[in-house]
Amino acid sequence: MVTPGGLVLLTDRRSASGPLIEVVRAAVRGGAAWVILRERDLSYGDRAALATRLRSVVPVDRLIISGPDPLGGTAVHLSGSDHLPAGPTLTGRSWHGTEDLSGVDYVTVSPVYPTSSKPGYGPALGVTGAAGLRAPVPWLALGGIGAADQAAECAAAGAAGIAVMGAIMRSPDPERTARELASGFAGGAS
């Protein structure tokens, strides 16, 4: 099974520096290998339509849907309280060291660094704290990653990838930002 790694982009249409599809397209050109569609506040129809549009700019089978319904795809990312659905071939979960990981292929661990996107999610773990949770499946570092040196630190700590939202969504040049973060992660992994 192929699990997410490298640079993983999380969508946020409200903070995107331009039309969401164009920001995602630029980030993919810059090195985002996977995309997690969040936008859980949209209606089912609008979310399904957005997933279809994103699949045209994301590498094949590399779009993950946040929530238990894969919206016609094969991959989901669950919150800590979402029930494990039947059907998806790739399942991830937000993990803070206590959630059940039965049937889960990868996790996000957060917040690694202080983040303005989700204030109030506790103190930042730092890369040592994130690695110290000893996830039993591949883990993605999430939270506050906005610079190549942070991406490299996550790779050196054993993360399979970095999950980034704000730094790319808000960037005036999402392709360049994605390239810098992907390169930083690759450099830290080698």
UniProtKB/TrEMBL annotation:
Pfam families: TMP-TENI
Keywords: Thiamine biosynthesis
Lineage top rank: taxon: Bacteria
Pathway field: Cofactor biosynthesis; thiamine diphosphate biosynthesis
Ranges of residues in domain Thiamine phosphate synthase/TenI: 102-168
InterPro entries attached to this UniProt entry: Aldolase_TIM (IPR013785), ThiamineP_synth_sf (IPR036206), ThiamineP_synth_TenI (IPR022998)
Entry function: Condenses 4-methyl-5-(beta-hydroxyethyl)thiazole monophosphate (THZ-P) and 2-methyl-4-amino-5-hydroxymethyl pyrimidine pyrophosphate (HMP-PP) to form thiamine monophosphate (TMP).
Protein name: Thiamine phosphate synthase
Organism of origin: Actinoplanes subglobosus
Native organism taxonomy: Bacteria, Bacillati, Actinomycetota, Actinomycetes, Micromonosporales
